[in-house]
Every structure is written in C-alpha cells, then in structure tokens.
Amino acid sequence: QVQLVESGGGLVQAGGSLRLSCAVSGGTFTWYTMGWFRQAPGQERESVAAISGNGGFISYVDSVKGRFTISRDNAKNTVYLQMNSLKPEETAVYYCAATARAKTIATMRRNDYDYWGQGTQVTVSS
C-alpha cells in the first residue's frame, strides 16, 4: 500500500517562502510521477506541479512558473515543493499525489493520480 505524508505547511506573509515535503512509503518510488495540487475553500483542486520518476520531466501551472520549484530525492523517497514569493490567493490545502500509470509522465491531470496524501495547510497573510 502506497502512503504519502505531506509536511512543511504553515503561516507565512505575502512574499515569503515555504518548502513542502512529501514522504512516500510502499511501492517503488522511482516508478511514480509525483504531483502537487492545492485546494482553496469552495474551489476545485487544481494542479500546481508534477515531476517524472527520474526527475527528467517537470510541469508547472503557469501561475507558479518562476516562483515554485518541484524536486525529488529518490534516495529519500521524498518530493519537495519550494514556494517563493507567495501570494494571499495561494492560501490552500496542498496535496501531493502519485501515479504509475502508463502515459502519465509529469501529468498535471488530477484524474491520472491514484494515491494522495492527507494535505498540509498553507496560509499566506496579506
């Protein structure tokens, strides 16, 4: 059974930075494309970034390009999301997710993911 556990959320002022981590257990970590998603109250869960199993393919939603960086450490079975220049409208619960399905390398489609963490709250104050 694959389990994902996020950490690193918290309260930060606008313009500040946070680094989220997602530790994965079960399965073979390098098989998984890993994604970060976020969901604000009353809104749909949206994709933020994704990274392929070997880190060679990376995708970002346009709104975070140049500010967020997704990375992974396959020796530690962990994926990261470095978030800089945070904005109040990015307040949300952030989730990591994993998929090993065919043709899903660095996918940004929520429905492509099979495994999800419990989420970590990120609050950006103005």
Q: Describe it for me?
A:
The protein is mostly beta strands. The strands form two sheets. Strands 2, 4, 5, 6, 9, 10 and 11 form a seven-stranded mixed sheet that branches. Strand 4 and strand 5 form a beta hairpin. It is globular. The mean pLDDT is 96.
Keywords:
single chain, 126 residues, mainly beta, seven-stranded mixed β-sheet, four-stranded antiparallel β-sheet, globular
Summarize the structure.
By secondary structure, the protein is mostly beta strands. Helix content is 0%, strand content 48%.
Which range best describes the helical content: under 10%, 10-25%, 25-40%, 40-55%, 55-70% or over 70%? under 10%
Count of extended strands = 11
For the terminal residues, how far apart are their CA atoms? 40 Å
Number of helix segments?
0
Structural class computed from helices and strand pairing: mainly beta
The average pLDDT score comes to: 96
**Topology pattern, helix = H, strand = E:** EEEEEEEEEEE
Largest sheet: 7 strands, mixed
Spans where pLDDT lies below 50 across 5 or more residues: none
Radius of gyration: 13 Å
The rough form would be described as globular
Percent strand equals: over 45%
Layout of SSEs?
Layout: E1 3-7, E2 10-13, E3 18-25, E4 33-39, E5 46-51, E6 58-60, E7 68-73, E8 78-83, E9 92-99, E10 115-116, E11 120-125
